[in-house]
Amino acid sequence: MKLSSLGEFGLIDSIRKMTAQQSPSVLIGIGDDAAALKLSSSSLLLATTDMLLEGVHFNLSYTDFYSLGWKSAAVNLSDIAAMGGVPRFCLISLGIPSSVSVEQVKDFYRGFRAVLRAHRTVLVGGDTCSSRKGFVINIVVLGESEKAKLVTRAGAKAGDRIFVTGTLGDSAAGLDLLRAATGRKRQEAWRRKLIQKHLRPVPRVAWGRIIAIAKCAHAMIDISDGLSSDLAHICDESGVGARIIAEDIPFSRSLLAASDKLGKSPLYYALSGGEDYELLFAAPPAKAKKLRSFDITVTEIGVITGERRLLLSCEGKTKPFRPTGYNHFKKSGG
Amino acid sequence: MKLSSLGEFGLIDSIRKMTAQQSPSVLIGIGDDAAALKLSSSSLLLATTDMLLEGVHFNLSYTDFYSLGWKSAAVNLSDIAAMGGVPRFCLISLGIPSSVSVEQVKDFYRGFRAVLRAHRTVLVGGDTCSSRKGFVINIVVLGESEKAKLVTRAGAKAGDRIFVTGTLGDSAAGLDLLRAATGRKRQEAWRRKLIQKHLRPVPRVAWGRIIAIAKCAHAMIDISDGLSSDLAHICDESGVGARIIAEDIPFSRSLLAASDKLGKSPLYYALSGGEDYELLFAAPPAKAKKLRSFDITVTEIGVITGERRLLLSCEGKTKPFRPTGYNHFKKSGG
Predict the structure, then answer these.
(1) ipTM of the shown complex
(2) For B144-154, what is each residue's pLDDT tens digit?
(3) Handedness of CA A140, A75, A209, A123 (dihedral sign)
(4) Which residues of B touch A328 (CB under 8 A)?
(5) Which residue of A has its CA nearest to B97?
(6) pLDDT of residue B4
């Protein structure tokens, strides 16, 4: 069905029905001038927003609409996870070109809803408009946290151990595979897994919360720009430096299988790739043992230093390195 | 200066400096994964978001960047005003094409900041990215209200008087003037005023709050789509109808001067034009006198009826009418 036969208010009504969820915290949801919401008393309000633009953040020939909706929700929930917070509410703005069908918009919302529900986050409002220039997405996630549990990017101290959750580099390798794919029918398992990591990342909401509650992190960030860039953000905000051990960075077996074919090293993907949405955090050494007692996948990959520069130890040699993740407006990646 | 020479993080840093405001309610502002904010205890959180797309919501040959920033903030504050709330925090996402200079982005933020400051709203975060397909804006405003003071679109009752603030139709006439203008040098005052109303609307934040605190409104909305559409929203959500007296709709002298030249009636602009960002509300008859005691400009323009249809009385004749404001995706305006 074409959007033009449904109209703006028909579409909003249809979204309202699709995403309807009862929650005693939502006094006014979709359909009024603003949502009216109840937070736990004494909590801080967390707020984050991300814009995703066709041709910049995603390419409709690589992604299906379900995955696009999924990822839009996931990247925002990941920001709340990186603060150690609990996501509660979500608002979404969509600019939809006339080439997109009602079914595709509904698929987008199905993927979006799947992630929200998994993380008990309620869609409470948004804006839906026609776009003349590509598919445009903006997401807002509102969450909460107790002041004492909040983990920012500032706070890392010399001597802290650097940890990451999960494995790094998969998403960027998945994107390279999508770019290189030309109607390939047979898909090896590693190929599917890396592409899945790129299209449907899983935000580490529960893990971020566990780390925050156990006070295991002096500083935390989610890896959206690549390990090198996001580590640099922590170091900049904390006024410290860092040394990473290349051999300790966790890689998936899929990435190890892919990197030969793709002609780039796993280390390259991890440092510069981005979009892994894993958590990167600095933990006081005394907490390292405690971390291993939780049911979360974390790996120690280096140490925070007092000297404000980034060092990489690789095959026994230590060299300075610079952030190389994606930087909007800059012509190259640096 | 070109954005490519400043880069994403340079731009964010520059915005951070430009918009820096101290507020004890902002524990974490721009520059972390999420903002961390303090609301008054016992308040409800209000949240609203609006997307503005080049070629759909604005045209860079009609508007300067200062006005664009101004309007982006104003239309979102207006949604909080329509709930009777107090705006507190703001997040902004910008997708910026390479054709836009650093100076233009800064001008945008100057206009944006002017409106935020006037309404004591603090910029606490956002997202800045490059766009390949036009200038893209998304704004979020977070506010608060006591539960008992909240005014929604639902709640209008048969017999309520219908009021609007300010004058209607100016903004749409201003847009028609901008469209018709061809390098005109001499600008009559009425022309300038209508264009100003279109480019730099003033959100009725204080008025909305006065109306809410005095419990003068059973239902309220801001006029963004046009009187006919927005009145229909109130009627739909409240399960009522309405009768409007055309002769009672307040028009500015500028609009009366313009409508001859533009070949459209003030009534047309008021009903179908939209973007006035005045408040439309249903007040119990007993409150009509009280309303006149406040220092706010309100005009009674009709009455809420029990029968679910919209009527317009004009020159002694009463006829049904349909919402005719802007509807995204529909090919015509209906």
Answers:
(1) 0.90
(2) 999 999 999 99
(3) positive
(4) 7-8, 128-130
(5) A329
(6) 78
